[in-house]
Amino acid sequence: MKYAKQKSTLRLIINSFLGISFALCLLACQGDEFKLKKALNSFDKGEYELVIQQLKPLAEKGYQLDQTSYFIAESYRLSNRISSALPYYQTALSKGNTDNSIRFNMAFAAKATGNYTLAQSALKDFLQNKPSKSLKLKAEIELENLPQVSELQKKTSPVGVQAVQGNTPMAEFSARKLGDELIITSSRKQSIYKNNGLPYLGLYKASLKSPVELGALNLFSPMIDKENANEGTPAFSKDGNTVVFARGNTGKNKDLSPDVDLYISRRNGNDWSVPERLAISDSIAWDGSPAFSSDGKTLYFSSNRRGGKGGLDIYRSPMDNSGRFGRPINLGYAINTPGDEIFPFVSEDGKLYFSSDGHPSLGGLDLFVASRNENEIIIEHLGVPMNSISDDFGISLVDSLSGYFSSNRAGGKGDDDIYYFKSPASNPDRWWTNEAPPVVAATENKIVQYFLQTEIIDPSGKPIDSVKVSIRRNGQSIDPGYSNKKGRLEIMDLGENDQIDFVCEKEDYLIKRSTFSMEGREIPARLLKKEITDTTFVWQIVMDKAEVGKEITQLYQINPIYYNLDRAEIRNDASEELEKIVQFLRDNTNVSIELGSHTDSRGSVPYNQKLSQRRAESAVRYIVLRGIDQKRIKAKGYGESQLVNECADGVECSEEMHQQNRRTEFKITEIKAE
After folding, report:
1. CA distance 211 to 213
2. Distance of alpha carbon 135 from alpha carbon 117, whole angstroms
3. CA distance 569 to 582
4. Which of 166-175, 246-255, 417-426 is predicted least confidently?
5. DSSP per residue over 401-442, as a string?
6. Higher per-residue pLDDT: 19 or 108
7. Under a CB-based contact definition with an 8 Å cutoff, are residues 404 and 395 in contact?
8. Contact indicator for 260, 249 with CB cutoff of 8 Å
9. 8 Å CB contact between 450 and 518
10. Where do the OmpA-like domain residues begin and end (predicted)?
11. Which residues, 6+ apart, have CB-to-CB distance to 345 below 8 Å?
């Protein structure tokens, strides 16, 4: 009896222990799941260093390695540390993650570590698994580039390279000599940028004790210093009195221009003026690494704006005598690739230096120089030791023999470092090559014939016949056309630089303008397989009937209108969108509209209501000043009363979801008989 009682007690203890163990295990699993969700929320916010810190402990204990390893790898890649991503991509793939982009990104991570064999096999696997069109093109070009690496490794530049005394474990790059000082970009601010875990970037200056030795580093200008924003990559006019630089990536949810824009400041006595955002900046794109031409009449910069060749492209913008910059022009496929082209610099003799990972390179970004030989643009790799398997970028020449560049190569202080280089005086014109042939030449051995098929359809995709279409090619009017029963116009032949403007009219329909541009659509010569290739672009123009209550924002591709925090004044980027409404009202003279402004749920209801009304009235004033009768447009502020998602008070939402509610809508309120 006593034994039975002891046995029963023992069983109870064992069951209790098992129950406690199971509960603890369940709590641990739930805790890991919560940590993963928390990390993914940080990932959505672009806080990549935080993601790495949150997920590494989970990966080390083997928790959902297909996901944890993948997001660690992506966080390294998106914070410009792709070489560290390689083992995590490999783990994610081996643990069953089926995202084909892993193979693509793994290839470039392998290349950044010098493992060209793995890079090649990963790209081949990627191309066999139904890749997306945009990545497919870059993968094909990279596969063609990789066999050239062995030749690039043999290419040497007769220069001496020396790390600058003044580099630190933080980031230092994009050095520009101004007088007796070196102006650099460095991560030295007090606040931390959650993308990479480093302090925010700023502009700093240091006296030069010698070309390779910096004095004490000081803030470049209190006027050009925004604490919670990255600032850097300065470009100075020839007289040193104007600077253009990049600012952005604040990491703040309320950042109204969440990417990077170009700003300009002018010397004001002993300091600089308050920076102004350049109108040529695209508020929804990355615009940075500016450089002036040697005569100061052209600004070069990099951008990933729509219509490019892929990734970051180099653009040029002419400046008139009043200091205004003209429409940015893409430098085309001779320079730009589906990869990244960034950090341009123009020398006194007109050569364009830049960095690229799209042209054949040793690892990440490599340094190149472009020069013109009659009608041909020659691209040359700067060889070793200027280039390495790491990122080499941000070159600037002090004179024809020497200058500075930046690199995160092995042997540095930590992150990006600044290096000084000098060439022997015996070879001042071609110090970057030792008689090796050009790596890349932009040749035109093959021909592409481009054609345009235009289709007029309604919002449901049905063709609209008998539409009168006025056409201008590169600003010159050509004969108008009419759509047939299939909604089509006659096929047009195209030139490589053509821009075609259409104005479509039909009774009971809203007049619709549309522009087709060849910019960014040319096929790179290196991808042509035949002597003559025919390519037809299909351009669809959507027309809709004029009806009271119809919302026209999407039909006319009007982007959201942004305002500065707690302000209602119209910004430069907002004016670009309001011009579309001005044109709509000029075209459709019998239509009146309501301009409705909305906010997200943050802030009190009364406050948001008043703010939205002020902003709507400000936009209406802008339109009226452009010559539109005030009777045809009404301002209406809706505050937070018409949210388009669940992001009400008390609901945690991402910045992207809040942005969906911060919108401006244009609704037809009246149609007069003509």
Report:
1. 6
2. 20
3. 18
4. 246-255
5. SEEEEEE--TTSSSSSEEEEEE--TT-SS-TT-SSPPPSEEE
6. 108
7. yes
8. yes
9. yes
10. 550-672
11. 291, 352, 353, 354, 395, 396, 397
